[in-house]
Amino acid sequence: MTENANIINAPEKAEAKKRIFSGVQPSGILTLGNYLGAIKNWVTLQDDYECLYCVVDLHAITVRQVPADLRRHTQEALALYIACGIDPEQSCVFVQSHVPAHAELSWVLNCNTMFGELSRMTQFKDKSQKHSDNVNAGLFTYPVLMASDILLYQTDLVPVGIDQKQHVELTRDVAQRFNGVYGDTFKIPEPYFVKTGMKINSLTDPTKKMSKSDPNPKSYVAIIETRDETIKKIKSAVTDSEACVKYAEGKDGINNLMSIYSSFTGKSFDEIEKEFEGKGYGDFKMAVGEVCADGLGPIREEYARLVKDKAYLEDVMKKGSDTASYLARKTLSKVYRKVGFYSVK
Ligand code: TYM
């Protein structure tokens, strides 16, 4: 399978360059889920699209963060984007809070999004249960900030994991509503998923999404952890007792490991089943652990080099926010004019 064959709805190359926007919250150490569901895919899209990749720190404070950790995680996330293969000379890489237009558009879109729509967001329901001591207004209006991120750049495609589908759908609804009331303003974006990898599950509870905010580090593979840690975690991943490598309903642990193996090797589930016919879960887990550690190894090495180079990372942030601010201002002025804000020349 080629990289592009793993992308649902990949348009023909001959089309004019479309614009892509995506981001990751710097709310912890980035995981294999973030890599396979999003960043790996971003890398392959760079040649064919005009890409903006953002570290979305404004989103991260919807859950209480330790300020020094947030600052460090922001720099680390940016270094990791580059270590994964995002080229800042080719794609615009920036930090969300460096471009005030995100927060500014968010206010306008808040006034065009319905309470009922936001109440239906499953991530809000999940997060408000998990953080019941801090169900703040930002957690509730989070999808509007995400819509602002996307709509500010007249984005065509939004490459994300499946957990973000509902938020991209809301973005489309809000954009359509705004365009209906004020006239054509926003491009209507499409979500963009990979076939395998769009949902990588927890290694300790494979019915749930792998998450960087999971308090149990055995539940996730961190992109930058050591080779031994990765192999050890995958070896102890929860599976069933059937000892048959087969993709089937109810075999969440094996299905998850097959998705990980497929994402790294490009092999289909049929090919994987054949490869491990007659072999036990021990052999399979070892193979998954190894392809995973081999795939992440070069990223880890590049990351270790980059993360020390603060001057370079800050230069990338500055250049990225200049480019992003220029594009964002164009949309924001249009929006301000459309809604009737008074402007003085
Ligand atoms: P976040 O930070 O939770 O995750 C970043 C990206 O990684 C994907 N992802 C996964 N994919 C597969 N399996 C998993 N276990 C997994 N965990 C995470 C997510 O789907 C996402 O693509 N709201 C977003 C960030 C955001 C954004 C945006 C994304 C803010 N504004 C605008 C796109 C466009 C979020 O919380 O992602």
Structural key phrases:
single chain, 345 residues, mainly alpha, Rossmann fold, Tyrosyl-Transfer RNA Synthetase, 3-stranded parallel beta sheet, two-stranded parallel ribbon, 13 helices, 7% strand, disordered N terminus, binds tryptophanyl-5'AMP
Write the layout of secondary structure elements.
Elements: E1 18-24, H1 32-45, E2 49-55, H2 57-60, H3 67-84, E3 92-95, H4 101-110, H5 115-119, H6 122-130, H7 137-152, E4 157-159, H8 165-182, E5 190-192, H9 227-235, H10 252-265, H11 269-275, H12 281-306, H13 310-339
Parallel strand pairs: 1-2, 2-3, 4-5
The structure holds tryptophanyl-5'AMP.
What does this structure look like?
- The chain contains 13 helices and five strands.
- The protein has two domains: 11-192 and 310-339, HUPs (Rossmann fold, 3-Layer(aba) Sandwich); 217-303, Tyrosyl-Transfer RNA Synthetase (Orthogonal Bundle), CATH 1.10.240.10.
- The protein has 345 residues and is mainly alpha-helical.
- Strand 1 (18-24), helix 1 and strand 2 (49-55) form a beta-alpha-beta unit.
- Strands 1-2-3 form a three-stranded parallel beta sheet. Strands 4-5 form a two-stranded parallel ribbon.
- Residues 1-5 have low confidence and may be disordered.
- The chain is globular, with a radius of gyration of 21 Å.
- The longest helix is centred in the last third of the chain and has 30 residues, at 310-339.
- The chain starts with 17 loop residues before the first strand and ends in a 6-residue tail after the last helix.
- It has helices at 32-45, 57-60, 67-84, 101-110, 115-119, 122-130, 137-152, 165-182, 227-235, 252-265, 269-275, 281-306, 310-339; strands at residues 18-24, 49-55, 92-95, 157-159, 190-192.
- The structure holds tryptophanyl-5'AMP.
